[in-house]
Design a protein that fits this description.
- The complex is a heterotrimer of chains A (376), B (373) and C (539).
- By secondary structure, chain A is of the alpha/beta class.
- Chain A is built from 14 helices and eleven strands.
- Chain A folds into two domains: 203 residues, D-Maltodextrin-Binding Protein, domain 2 (3-Layer(aba) Sandwich); 152 residues, Periplasmic binding protein-like II (D-Maltodextrin-Binding Protein, domain 2, 3-Layer(aba) Sandwich).
- Chain A is globular, with a radius of gyration of 21 Å.
- By secondary structure, chain B is an alpha+beta fold.
- Chain B has two domains: 237 residues, Rossmann fold, CATH 3.40.50.300; 122 residues, OB fold (Dihydrolipoamide Acetyltransferase, E2P).
- In chain B, the strands form four sheets. In chain B, strands 6-7-8-3-9-10 form a six-stranded mixed β-sheet, with helices on both faces. Chain B has a five-stranded mixed beta barrel with strand order 11-12-13-20-14. A five-stranded antiparallel β-sheet of chain B has the order 15-19-16-17-18, with no helix packed on it.
- Chain B is elongated, with a radius of gyration of 25 Å.
- Chain B starts with 17 loop residues before the first strand and ends with a strand.
- The chains are: A alpha/beta (376), B alpha+beta (373), C mainly alpha (539).
- Chains in contact: A-C, B-C.
Chain lengths: 376, 373, 539
C-alpha cells in the first residue's frame, strides 16, 4: 500500500511538473499549419507514440495528426518525394543510421538541440541531456533499444547449461541447435570479433582492416550451418516459440512481449547488447508553417516527461537521461518497466555502442563482403 | 430383314464383317442409350445409321471404334469378339465429324502418321500417301497445313487419312455435316465412288435422310436406342415398318382410324371422320383396333380420271408453285395438313383455294401401321 | 480535317499510276485512305488513355532508370573548381594533388557546406571509395574555420584596389575573363552563389568583396600562367586591368599561401590519401560506368577495369542464381501444372470449376499468410517434417531442411506462380478437340505415342506462354525469396530492393535493373528465334 501511495504521489508530482513544463516552455505555435502527417513503424510502437505524444499534443493544440506507417521505406520515399518536390510528411520516425543517411543526402533538416528542443526540468540543456545519443545533426533521439540475445529455457540437449554471455551464439558444443541472427553484417561482425578475443574498444579499428573483416567472417563461419538468418524483427520470437531456433537475436522489446506477454519459455541476455536509437527527423523542403508546426511538435514530444510516458506502453528506454527516473509501470500489465529498459543500470553493465560514423562509411563495403560470404 | 447384301456379290471384296449381339449401353447406370442392339454388317457393305440426335447412333459407332465400352453384349469384327481390344488394335479407319486433322502437321504428314506407326519404310510410305492424295484429287496439297485448306478439301484429306492404311472397315461420323449443300452432294458421290472401288465396309452415321438414301446399301433407322427398321433405301421408303420410319424418311400424310375388316394383306378402315378407306395391312392389330394410315404425297392423284381404290374429297387450303411440281395443302378426312404433290404436266389447271376436289389413291400405296389395341 | 487533307496529298503522290477514281473524280486510293484513316484515328483515340498510361508509368520510368545507371553529374556540379583543377593532376603519380587543387576544393566545399550538399557527394563517392563519406561529413563543419585570407591580404598589400568591389568588376569585364582565369571564374560564381544563400537575393554582389577562397584561386590562376601572359596583363592596353596587375608579375612568386593542403590534412587525414583523390578524379565526368562495373563485380582502378577481390564478388553469382532458379521454377510449374491443366480441360464443367478455384486460391491469400503457412509446413519442426518422422522416413535428428534455402524459394515460388502456367495451358488445351487423340488411336497409335506426337505438340503454344509469364515474373520476384530464401535462395531483385530502399544507391540499383532487363530481353529474343513468339497463345 505504502509503495502504491508513494508511486501515486510521484505520478501526481510528475503530472504537475508536466503541466508546468507545457505552460512554461511551450508557447502556442504562431502561424503554424493545423494539420500534420507523422510517419512511424506501426504496431505496438506507433500505439505507444499515439498514447504518449499524439493524443496529448492534439488535445493541447487542436492539431489534426495523420498517421502513416511507412518508416520501413522512409529513406527511399523521402528521396523520391524530394526529387518530385512534393514532401507530404512533416515528422518522420527513423532509426539513427537512416537519419544519418537522410542528413547526408540533405533530405532531413538540421536541428539545434539547445535552441530548438526543450531543456530538462532542472534546466540541463537538451544537448547535455541527450548526450552522446545526438549522433546526427538532423536527428532527435526518442528511445534507446537494443539488439540482444534470447534463448529457450527448456532445451534438454544443453544438459542444464544456460547461456550467460553473447558468445554462447558461437559455442555450438555447449549449446547445439539452430540460432537466428539478423541477415546483415551490423551487430554480427562486432559480436564475432568480441567473441574472438578482440577488446571492445578495438572492434572498429580491427574491422577497418581487410584482415579484421576476414577474422569476423571466419568466426561466423564456425556457426554458418547452424544459423537461420532473419530480416524482420518478428522472426526470432516466432522461431524461438516454434523451437525452430533455440537461441537468437532480436530487439529487446520483442523479447519483452515474448516473455512477459506471451509467457513463452524463453529468457534473454543483456550481455553485449548493442544499443541503437530511434527518433525523429523533419524533412527538408517543407514550407514555413509546416516546418514551424513540425518543430513545435518535436519539441513537445521529446521533452523529459513525454519520453518517460512512452515507456509505459513499450519496453524501450527514453533517450534523455532526465527521463530515466520517471519511468513507471506498464499501462496494461502493471509491470514495473525500469528493469526492462536497456538503459537500466543493471542491464547496461556490458553494452556495446554501435559506431554510426564507421558504419556510414563502411556499410556498403561490408555488406558486399557479408553477402558474398553468405552466398558461398 | 435380309442379312445378305448386294455388294457382297460384287468382286474385289476386302471388307470386314461386323456383328452386334445384344449390345446395351448406359452412361449413367439409369438410362439405356442403346437397347439390345443386334446388327449384322456383311463384308464390303455400306451401312448407314440414321436417326435424330440422341437416338444412339453415334454411341453405337463409338462402341464399334472402341472409344466407348459396351455395357452389355458383344461386338464381333470378322467373328472375333473385340470388346477387350483397344481402339488402336482394331485396325478401323475413322472419319470424324470435325475431321480431326492434326493442325501441327502438313497434309502429307497427317496421312503418313498411321503408316509411320505401322513402321512402314519411307519410300513405301510416300508412295501410299501420294496414291491416297491422288485418290481424293489433292495431290498438289501435301505440303499445306490443314488450316490452309477449304472445308471440302479438309474433308477429303480426312477420308484419305482414314483409308491410307488400308483398313477393312471405315467408320464415318457425320463427315459431311459442316459442308454446304452443293459440296455435300458432290462428296456423297465421291465417298460412294471410293467405297465401290475399294470394296471396304463402311459404317456411316448421319441424321440426313437424303445422304442415307443415296449412299447406303442398307440403312438402320435409330430411335430411342432401338433400330426401328434396317433395310435397303427403297424398301425403307416404300415399305416403312412404322409411322416413325415413314415420317422420318421422305414426306408422309397420316390418317388415323379403326380397322373394320382384314382381307389377306388388304384391310378396310373407318377414319375418324367416318370416311371409309382401303389400305395395305403392313402392321396392324385385330379388327376393331386403331391404326395409322401412312400415305406418300406423290402417290395421290388430284381429280383422278379413272376409278381408284379410294376416292376422298378434300378442300384446298394453300397452293405452292415449285416449278416441277405443285404442292397443295388440303383438309382431308380431319387432317388439315394433308399434302398432295401434283407433277407439273404443263396442261393441268392450278387448283383454286377453298374449292373441293376429289383425291384418289390405290390401296397398295396406303400403309396401315402402328397397331394400337 | 485540315491535317488529314495534307496527309491525303502525300498518299496520292505515293500512289503513282493509279488511274482509278471514284465517281466524283477523287482518286480511289485517296478516298479509301481517307475512309481508313478515320478508322485509324478512332482506334488511336480508343487506345490513347492506355498509351498515355504506359508512357507515364512504364516507358518514362524505364528511361529514367537507364539514365540513372550512368548519370554522375553530382561530382562536377558540387566540386566544379576541383574537377577543373584536377585535370592537370596525374592520377598515376604517387603524389597527392598540390595546393592549387586544395584551394579549389576549399572554395567548392565552402559553397557546398553552405548549401548542405557536401555530405551528399561524400555518399556518392563512398559507393566507389569506402570511407570517404566521413571525410566529407567531418570537413563540412570546419570549412568555415579554415585560414583563408593569406592570398587576399597579399593582393591588398600589393595594391589596395584589390580590396574593393571595383577590382572584381574590372576583372570580370576584361577581355581575358574568363578564359585566362578558369579557376577564378568558377570560384567567383561559387562565391556569388554563397552570398545569395547566406545573405539573401537582395544583396548585389558587385558591391561586395569576395572572401579569401576566391583570391586563393586567383593566385593559383595567375601563378600557373606563362610569364608572358601575366606580363601582358600588367601591360594591357586596358588601363584599368594594367593598373590592377601592375607589380603582380614580380610579386606573385613571393605570395604566401594558406596551406589548404595542410589544413585539410589536419581536419581529416583522408584528404592526403591518394586513393581518395584518384576516386574523385575517376568520378569527375558527368557519365560513369562505375555502377555497371559494380553490378558485374568489377571496378575501375588506376590499373584499368578489374574484377573486385574475391570476397566482394556476388552480383554475378546472384544473376546466375536468379536465372537458374527461375528456370527451375518454370520447369517445376510445367511439370506440376500440365496434368492439372489437362484435368481442367477434360473434366466436366462443375468439377473443373472447383479445381480452378483451388488453382486460383494462392491469388486470394495474402502474401504473409501464404508465406507463414509455408513456414509452418516446411520448417524443421514443421508439419511435413513431423509427418515424415512419424512415418519413420526420416530420423528425428535428421529432419529435412526445406526452408530458408533454395528449396524453400523453389517450393514457395512454384506455388505462387503455378496459376500463371496453368491458365494459359488450360485455355490452349480447351481448344484441343478430344477427337485428335481418338483419331490418332484409331490409326493405331498407343496412348503414349498419341500424347507425344499429337496432344503435346498442340500444347506447346500454351507451355510457351506459361513459361514466359512464369519466368519473367519469377526473375523479378523479391518478397517471397527474401522471406523464405534464407541466404542461398535470394534473387538479384532482393539486392535491387536493398539499394533502392536502404542504401539509397539508386545508380547501382538502376544498373542491376538494366542488366536484368537486358537479360530478359535477350532470353525473349532467343526464345523468339528458337520457338517463335507467334507460337505463344494465351488462349
Amino acid at each position: 500500500m505504502k509503495f502504491t501511495a508513494g508511486l501515486a504521489s510521484a505520478f501526481a508530482l510528475s503530472a504537475v511538473a508536466m503541466v508546468a513544463t507545457a505552460a512554461d516552455e511551450l508557447p502556442a505555435c504562431e502561424d503554424c499549419a493545423d494539420q500534420m502527417t507523422i510517419v512511424s513503424w506501426g504496431g505496438a510502437y506507433s500505439n505507444s507514440q499515439l498514447q504518449a505524444y499524439h493524443n496529448p499534443y492534439s488535445e493541447m493544440t487542436g492539431v489534426e495528426i495523420v498517421n502513416d506507417e511507412s518508416s520501413a521505406e522512409a529513406v527511399a520515399k523521402l528521396r523520391a518525394m524530394n526529387e518530385a518536390n512534393n514532401v507530404t510528411w512533416d515528422v518522420v520516425d527513423v532509426v539513427a543510421a537512416d537519419a544519418m543517411r537522410l542528413c547526408d543526402e540533405g533530405l532531413a533538416m538540421e536541428i539545434d538541440a539547445d535552441t530548438q528542443l526543450a531543456a530538462a526540468p532542472d534546466g540541463t540543456p537538451a544537448s547535455e541531456d541527450f548526450g552522446d545519443l545526438l549522433v546526427s545533426d538532423c536527428f532527435i533521439p526518442q528511445i534507446v533499444y537494443s539488439t540482444t540475445l534470447g534463448y529457450r529455457t527448456d532445451v534438454a540437449e544443453w544438459n542444464g547449461a544456460v547461456p550467460s554471455d553473447v558468445c554462447a551464439v558461437f559455442d555450438t558444443e555447449t549449446f547445439p541447435g539452430k540460432r537466428s541472427l539478423e541477415k546483415r553484417p551490423i551487430n554480427n561482425v562486432e559480436w564475432a570479433l568480441l567473441c574472438d578475443g578482440v577488446a571492445k574498444e578495438d572492434v572498429y579499428d580491427v574491422l577497418s582492416t581487410d584482415e579484421g573483416v576476414a577474422q569476423a567472417l571466419a568466426k561466423l563461419d564456425t556457426i554458418r550451418d547452424d544459423v537461420i538468418w532473419w530480416s524482420a524483427g518478428a522472426e526470432t520470437p516466432q522461431l524461438l516459440a516454434d523451437s525452430e531456433a533455440l537461441l537468437g537475436s532480436t530487439y529487446n522489446g520483442r523479447f519483452f512481449s515474448l516473455i512477459e506477454e506471451q509467457k513463452q519459455p524463453v529468457a534473454m541476455l543483456w550481455d553485449a547488447q548493442v544499443f541503437d536509437l530511434d527518433g525523429w527527423i523533419i524533412p527538408t523542403g517543407l514550407d514555413e508553417a509546416r516546418t514551424a508546426r513540425a518543430l513545435h511538435y518535436v519539441k513537445f514530444a521529446t521533452d523529459t516527461q513525454r519520453l518517460a510516458d512512452q515507456s509505459k506502453y513499450i519496453s524501450y528506454g527514453p533517450a534523455r537521461a532526465s527521463s530515466a527516473p520517471l519511468v513507471g509501470k506498464h499501462a496494461e500489465l502493471g509491470i514495473d518497466m525500469a528493469p526492462h529498459m536497456p538503459t537500466d543500470p543493471n542491464n547496461a553493465k556490458n553494452t556495446f555502442l554501435y559506431n554510426y560514423e564507421w558504419w556510414a562509411d563502411n556499410r556498403d563495403d561490408l555488406d558486399a563482403k557479408f553477402q558474398t560470404w553468405l552466398s558461398q | 430383314m435380309s442379312s445378305a447384301s448386294n455388294a457382297n456379290s460384287s468382286s474385289g471384296i476386302r471388307g470386314a464383317a461386323v456383328r452386334f449381339e445384344h449390345v446395351q449401353k448406359s452412361y449413367d447406370g439409369e438410362v439405356l442409350v442403346v437397347k439390345d442392339l443386334n446388327l449384322n454388317i456383311a463384308p464390303g457393305e455400306f451401312v448407314t445409321m440414321l436417326g435424330p440426335s440422341g437416338s444412339g447412333k453415334t454411341t453405337c459407332l463409338m462402341m464399334l471404334a472402341g472409344f466407348e465400352p459396351a455395357t452389355h453384349g458383344e461386338i464381333f469384327l470378322n467373328d472375333k469378339p473385340i470388346n477387350n481390344v483397344p481402339p488402336r488394335k482394331r485396325g478401323i479407319g475413322m472419319v470424324f465429324q470435325n475431321y480431326a486433322l492434326f493442325p501441327h502437321m502438313s497434309v502429307a504428314e497427317n496421312l503418313a502418321f498411321p503408316l509411320e506407326i505401322r513402321k512402314m519404310g519411307k519410300s513405301e510410305r510416300d508412295a501410299k500417301v501420294k496414291r491416297a492424295l491422288d485418290m481424293v484429287e489433292l495431290g498438289a496439297f501435301g505440303n499445306r497445313r490443314p488450316a490452309q485448306l477449304s472445308g471440302g478439301q479438309q474433308q477429303r484429306v480426312a477420308v484419305a487419312r482414314a483409308l491410307v492404311f488400308d483398313p477393312d472397315l471405315v467408320l464415318m461420323d457425320e463427315p459431311l455435316g459442316a459442308l454446304d449443300k452443293q459440296l455435300r452432294e458432290q462428296m456423297q458421290y465421291e465417298i460412294k465412288h471410293i467405297h465401290e472401288s475399294l470394296g471396304v465396309s463402311v459404317v456411316y452415321v448421319t441424321h440426313d435422310q437424303t445422304e442415307a438414301l443415296t449412299m447406303s446399301d442398307r440403312v438402320a433407322v435409330f430411335q430411342d436406342g432401338v433400330i426401328q427398321q434396317l433395310s435397303s433405301p427403297d424398301a425403307l421408303y416404300e415399305s416403312p415398318q412404322n409411322s416413325f420410319v415413314a415420317q422420318f424418311i421422305g414426306e408422309n400424310n397420316k390418317l388415323s382410324g379403326v380397322v373394320t375388316d382384314i382381307n389377306n394383306d388388304i384391310c378396310s378402315m373407318t377414319l375418324d371422320d367416318g370416311t371409309k378407306v382401303q389400305s395395305q395391312a403392313v402392321n396392324i392389330g385385330d379388327v376393331g383396333s386403331r391404326s395409322t394410315l401412312s400415305l406418300r404425297p406423290e402417290r395421290i392423284e388430284l381429280e383422278p380420271t379413272e376409278q381408284r381404290d379410294n376416292m376422298v374429297p378434300g378442300v384446298v387450303k394453300e397452293v405452292l408453285y415449285l416449278g416441277d411440281h405443285l404442292r397443295i395443302v388440303m383438309a382431308v378426312a380431319g387432317n388439315d395438313e394433308f399434302i398432295v404433290k401434283v407433277p407439273n404436266g404443263g396442261r393441268s389447271t392450278i387448283p383454286v383455294e377453298g374449292n373441293t376436289y376429289n383425291l384418289g389413291w390405290s390401296a397398295e400405296d396406303a400403309k396401315a401401321l402402328d397397331p394400337v389395341n | 480535317m485540315t491535317a488529314s487533307t495534307a496527309l491525303d496529298s502525300n498518299t496520292s503522290e505515293l500512289a503513282q499510276g493509279a488511274p482509278l477514281t471514284t465517281k466524283d473524280g477523287q482518286p480511289l486510293k485517296r478516298s479509301l485512305g481517307r475512309a481508313l484513316r478515320r478508322e485509324k484515328i478512332r482506334a488511336l483515340f480508343l487506345i490513347l488513355p492506355l498509351l498515355a498510361f504506359v508512357l507515364i508509368t512504364f516507358i518514362f520510368p524505364i528511361g529514367d532508370m537507364l539514365f540513372r545507371s550512368v548519370e554522375n553529374s553530382i561530382v562536377e556540379k558540387t566540386l566544379p573548381g576541383t574537377v577543373v583543377a584536377l585535370q592537370d593532376w596525374d592520377s598515376e603519380s604517387d603524389e597527392v594533388p598540390g595546393e592549387r587543387v586544395f584551394s579549389a576544393l576549399a572554395d567548392d566545399m565552402m559553397l557546398a557546406q553552405e548549401l548542405k550538399i557536401h555530405t551528399r557527394i561524400g555518399t556518392r563517392i563512398n559507393y566507389d571509395q569506402p570511407g570517404i563519406s566521413s571525410v566529407f561529413r567531418k570537413s563540412g563543419r570546419r570549412i568555415k574555420r579554415l585560414d583563408s585570407d593569406a592570398s587576399k591580404d597579399a593582393f591588398i598589400a600589393l595594391n589596395a584596389a584589390w580590396g574593393t568591389p571595383d577590382a572584381w568588376t574590372t576583372l570580370t569585364s576584361s577581355a581575358q575573363w574568363p578564359e585566362s582565369f578558369p579557376q577564378t571564374a568558377i570560384a567567383f560564381d561559387n562565391w556569388k552563389a554563397w552570398l545569395a544563400s547566406e545573405e539573401g537575393d537582395d544583396i548585389d554582389p558587385s558591391t561586395q568583396v569576395p572572401y579569401g577562397f576566391t583570391y586563393a584561386n586567383l593566385f593559383h590562376d595567375l601563378s600557373s600562367m606563362e610569364n608572358g601572359a601575366l606580363n601582358n596583363l600588367a601591360k594591357s592596353s586596358d588601363s584599368a586591368i594594367a593598373s590592377l596587375f601592375a607589380g603582380v608579375p614580380d610579386a606573385i612568386d613571393n605570395f604566401p599561401t594558406d596551406d589548404f593542403k595542410g589544413q585539410f590534412a589536419d581536419i581529416e587525414k583522408g584528404w592526403v590519401n591518394i586513393q581518395n583523390w584518384q576516386a574523385i578524379k575517376r568520378l569527375s565526368p558527368a557519365f560513369t560506368d562505375s555502377y555497371f562495373l559494380a553490378a558485374v563485380d568489377s571496378e575501375r582502378t588506376e590499373a584499368g577495369v578489374q574484377q573486385k577481390p574475391a570476397n566482394e564478388r556476388f552480383y554475378v553469382t546472384l544473376f546466375v542464381r536468379t536465372i537458374v532458379l527461375s528456370i527451375v521454377i518454370t520447369l517445376a510449374c510445367i511439370l506440376l501444372g500440365y496434368p492439372i491443366a489437362y484435368l481442367l480441360a477434360t473434366l466436366s464443367v462443375r468439377s473443373s470449376n472447383l479445381i480452378l478455384i483451388l488453382v486460383l486460391l494462392p491469388f486470394w491469400t495474402s502474401l504473409l499468410v501464404r508465406t507463414s503457412s509455408w513456414k509452418v509446413l516446411l520448417q524443421q519442426q514443421g508439419v511435413i517434417n513431423d509427418l515424415l518422422v512419424w512415418i519413420g522416413l526420416v530420423a528425428d535428428d535428421g529432419r529435412l531442411v526445406m526452408i530458408n534455402n533454395m528449396t524453400g524459394t523453389i517450393i514457395a515460388m512454384t506455388h505462387i506462380l503455378l496459376p500463371f502456367m496453368i491458365l494459359p495451358l488450360y485455355s490452349v488445351m480447351k481448344t484441343i478437340s478430344p477427337s485428335y487423340m481418338r483419331a490418332a488411336k484409331s490409326m493405331g497409335a498407343s496412348d503414349t505415342l498419341a500424347f507425344w506426337r499429337i496432344y503435346f505438340p498442340n500444347t506447346i503454344a500454351g507451355i510457351g506462354a506459361g513459361s514466359i509469364l512464369v519466368f519473367i515474373l519469377a526473375i523479378g520476384y523479391y518478397i517471397t525469396p527474401a522471406l523464405v530464401g534464407g541466404t542461398k535462395g535470394v534473387f538479384i531483385s532482393n539486392q535491387i530492393a536493398y539499394h533502392i530502399s536502404s542504401s539509397l544507391n539508386w545508380g547501382l540499383a538502376a544498373a542491376l535493373g538494366t542488366i536484368l532487363l537486358v537479360l530478359v530481353l535477350a532470353l525473349y529474343w532467343t526464345y523468339d528465334r528458337i520457338v517463335g513468339i507467334d507460337n505463344v497463345k494465351l488462349g
